[in-house]
Specification:
The structure is a homodimer. Chain A is mainly alpha-helical. Chain A has two domains: 406 residues, no CATH class; 139 residues, STAS domain (Transcription Regulator spoIIAA). Helices cover 61% and strands 6% of the residues of chain A. Chain A is built from 26 helices and nine strands. In chain A, the strands form two sheets. In chain A, strands 3, 4, 5, 6, 7, 8 and 9 form a seven-stranded mixed sheet that branches. The longest helix of chain A is centred in the middle third of the chain and has 32 residues. The interface between A and B is large, with 84 and 85 residues.
């Protein structure tokens, strides 16, 4: 029964087939999968066309870039991804990161902005593919749930604020600070363009109705699930059409100064080449790293959640490779960084996507849009796209997660709050770093003041537990103290104080037993302290013993000679054994 | 027996007498303490006069500043310090930090340099006193032994290198990088001033003889301990006298261009006022913080080690107040930052210092030197002072500590090495930060891949231990797995992989018991994983149980409703109880 040797993270050997997951579903494609794939592919395309343009706007890019990023990357992910239902493309958080990263470089022209976005997609692709081949995807585990939750909420707030200018119809200076954006918006409120504001509010109203109420109404009317799902997802398309009609019919772009998308070039996505100069790459590196990690996190968590529901498996490292390759696709076809997004993936799953074919169908429909429908978007008001963004991100602000964390553990809640505040006041990149540092710092802080418990015997068992929580039996000449933490530098000094304090408070004892069942590691700083404690107790004629020392910890204590120095007879396998032996032993016999 | 409520770090209430420790020893001064105090005071003064001048040179200050810093600060510490034997004054590492911090500001004149040093002393004083009153001295525990050891070794190397110019007699450009200093020294080796180099080598030779050989020779001659100790400590004084004689007699400062100290102003230390402009304080803040922490660490570790040998007590927070006040003293009497140093404190202790009176005597002798002996230092060669610095710091490079750490635990050794390399390549301030971050990062890294063990019953006891290390009995339908770490975000995903991997490798089991004896904390990220694991196992008809959950952990699981969701009957107090119950239970009865 040598199951210990199992190491799930160890490389089990990778075959070339693992890098081409589509061989699995394409070769064995089943007819009954087709209808689900087609329906899902169509519904996602209906969502993706307006969202792609809206997110491009959010990223500071022309709308067609969002559409270009919704074709080849989807095909590549559909073939290489291990998730059957993940819907890849432009997403809100990554678009915000693109805007923040490229905005900071102040590109002079739109062409330069687009070139920087392509370059960013290439860098993200390289980083993700490298992480995948190096199998270091697990590194993202150092971002805790509360940090991610705080980050997402904070990014959503900043995304919504970034759209205020399009909602109200006046210009707001770019800023990464919540209070600056709020203040400059309020100070311009009298410059509001009423026509734009009316379009925004009407669009938001329609979207909210489609999102929250329409489903129930359709259900009450007895409409079938697939039709209902399709109808509830056409809200964005509807306001796009509505917006185009209203502006073009009434000429609002001239009479009321309503900002419109303008000419969107049609035809196949262009072949594009990113920039290859060192200074640009250096300047983009921090944001490229942030996008790589954040987009992988978003993608893998959605992908895993959906796969678990259908008992499918996700390979984290292959996902990195597939996402990276999708970003390569975006690089060379006029796109910008993409990832697997939450909302469209949920819809893809719910609509019945069975294989990567759904993604291919979506990509085909977006391609048709780019080829034939772009002239229709000329009169599309920016306000409509802003409304799509605002409604999409509003649900990402997750107050419930904060309350849940607060209820469970204050330090989780503090990590979340610190990340949120850092994101909205210091910017998205710095914010996630601050959040990660705060969550790790809080953990170290926690371990610096470990919980300790004096333990006693429970009834006639061999179990020793906290005397304050259980009915226990103790022995007058023995003090057995359990320290609930690994012993290492942040708590080494505290350990000494606690042990000597307990001994001082119990002058009647002859024997002190340190119960190490919860000690997973003793570092060299704590080892020094144990030596000191041992000497101090010996000087006071009190025996020092250790019980329940774990194998790996004991190995080290033996290797360094500490076990011999203490005396091997002073180590006991169990607290019970220690107490059984020491009860009989007086002071004089302690050594 | 409510000893749990004992919290040694909690404020036990402080009386005003705790802030004036000299009341203890001055009021009850015993005659038999006097001879020890006098002898120790004299020997330390003999060391301190040349060292004070040498360390001032190292700090980039005129030699008299080192003497001024050796008068009032010693008196203040002698009265306020809780250590009876700590010898305060200029020390090597702090002098290096002063040189690095002020050097970076490029002061135009020596007057400005001195004013900046005074200001630094004031800032260090304020920071230390504030830390003392706020009782946050424990924060320094986040610097581990290996980090401090690597820092000290690295600083010693940089100190020695900084003196190369005085040893060889040519100018070397200031640098904080090991390789730059080495390279620029080698490239100038043909410019060596032979006279200076000869004086340096002779001085170093004498110092090494006094340090390593003289004691043995005197012992062989049967000289008494006190006399021997005094004689071994007059090495620096001897080379000072020798250097002055040789230079003045042969006129080497003119004939051979030997750099000399020159005119040292005599008379009482001047009353000095630090700078009070915001920009200066901002610029000095990082170095002031570093000096505050490093000097406190050096002082408290020496003080504690010496106090423990005589069963005396050190109050960490009062030490901060006393050191801070000593720095105030340095500020207003023409000094620079001071602390309790290792070597002079050892000598003070060995020579028999009993109370703070020894410090007062040392201060008095240094004052006499400043008043009457400064003209004698005119011809003192800088090379002699450099030799004193080099020999003093050479013993701080501690290769043994690295080997010891390497032998005990690689990650302790890596912290040490990273700190050392960062100090010699990135500078002393950045170095200690990098080291602290590395040591914490390595700990988090360690916890991200916890040790796990399948446990079995030892004989007929109730103890369950690792089946690979002990003779144990296991039960075919039960898998009991102990995870040796708190469950939190860096290892949450790993936990899931490990548990599901073990279950997959043991298809015959009906029950999976997670033994939580070493789990001191479960964060909200790990809680999610436990929920997933519970569901996945349920779907596979395997029961999921937790045993030996600690009180504080269980409290949280109950508060958040996880305990009810799992089912209370699925929690067992001990592994033995779990196995006893589950052995009888088939798959069907698992829920």
């Amino acid at each position: 029964m040598a199951t210990q040797t199992y190491n799930p993270v160890q490389d089990r050997g990778v075959s070339w087939r693992d890098y081409l997951p589509f061989l699995d579903w394409l070769v064995n494609y089943k007819r009954e999968h087709l209808s689900g794939d087609v329906i899902a592919g169509v519904i996602v395309a209906v969502m993706l066309v307006p969202q792609g343009m809206a997110y491009a706007l959010l990223a500071g890019l022309p709308p067609q870039v969002g559409l270009y990023a919704s074709i080849l990357p989807l095909i590549i992910y559909g073939l290489l991804g291990t998730s059957r239902t993940l819907a890849v493309g432009p997403v809100a958080v990554v678009s915000l990161l693109v805007a923040s990263g490229i905005g900071a470089l102040n590109p002079a022209t739109t062409e330069e902005y687009i070139a920087l976005a392509l370059t960013l997609a290439l860098m993200v692709g390289i980083i993700q593919v490298a992480m995948g081949f190096l199998r270091v995807g697990f590194l993202v585990n150092f971002l805790s749930h509360p940090v991610l939750s705080g980050f997402t909420s904070g990014a959503a707030v900043m995304i919504a604020l970034s759209q205020l200018k399009n909602v109200f119809g006046f210009d707001v200076p770019r800023s990464e600070q919540f209070h600056a954006l709020i203040l400059s918006t309020i100070s311009r409120i009298d410059q509001t363009n009423i026509a734009i504001f009316a379009i925004s509010m009407a669009s938001i109203g329609v979207l909210l109705y489609f999102k929250f109420a329409l489903g129930k109404h359709l259900k009450a009317l007895g409409v079938s699930n697939v039709v209902a799902l399709t109808l509830t997802k056409i809200g964005p398309l509807l306001i796009v059409v509505g917006g185009v009609l209203i502006v073009s019919v009434f000429g609002l772009h001239q009479s009321a100064d309503v900002a419109i998308v303008g000419a969107v070039p049609g035809g196949l996505p262009p072949l594009t080449i990113p920039l290859f100069d060192v200074a640009t790459w250096q300047a983009l590196l921090p944001i490229a790293l942030t996008i790589s990690i954040v987009s992988y996190m978003e993608s893998i968590s959605v992908g895993k959640a959906l796969a678990a529901k259908r008992r499918q498996k996700i390979d984290a490292n292959q996902e990195l490779i597939a996402l990276g390759a999708a970003n390569f696709g975006a690089t060379f076809t006029g796109g910008y960084p993409v990832t697997g997004g939450f909302s469209r993936s949920m819809v893809n799953f719910t609509a019945g996507a069975n294989t990567g074919l759904a993604s291919l169908i979506t990509a085909g429909l977006v391609l048709l849009t780019v080829l034939f429908l772009t002239p229709l978007f000329y009169y599309l008001p920016n306000a409509v796209l802003a409304a799509i963004v605002v409604v999409a991100v509003a649900s990402l602000v997750d107050v419930g997660a904060f309350l849940h964390a607060w209820h469970y553990d204050k330090s989780d809640a503090i990590s979340l709050l610190v990340t949120f505040l850092a994101v909205i006041q210091l910017g998205v990149e710095v914010g996630i770093l601050v959040g990660a540092a705060a969550s790790m710092g809080l953990y170290l802080w926690r371990t610096s003041r470990p919980h300790v418990a004096v333990v006693g015997r429970i009834g006639e068992t061999e179990e020793y537990r906290n005397i304050l929580r259980h009915e226990t039996q103790t022995f007058p000449n023995i003090l057995a103290l359990r320290v609930d933490e690994s012993l290492y530098f942040p708590n080494a000094q505290y350990l000494e104080d606690v042990v000597l304090g307990h001994v001082a408070d119990n002058p009647q004892i002859d024997h002190f037993v340190l119960v190490c069942s919860a000690v997973n590691y003793i570092d060299i700083s704590a080892l020094e302290v144990l030596r000191d404690v041992h000497e101090r107790l010996r000087d006071n004629d009190i025996g020092f013993y250790m019980a329940e020392v774990k194998g790996p910890v004991m190995d080290r204590l033996e290797a360094i000679g500490f076990a011999d120095r203490m005396g091997r007879q002073n180590f006991f396998l169990t607290t019970h054994e220690a107490c059984k032996t020491l009860r009989q032993l007086g002071k004089a016999q302690a050594f």
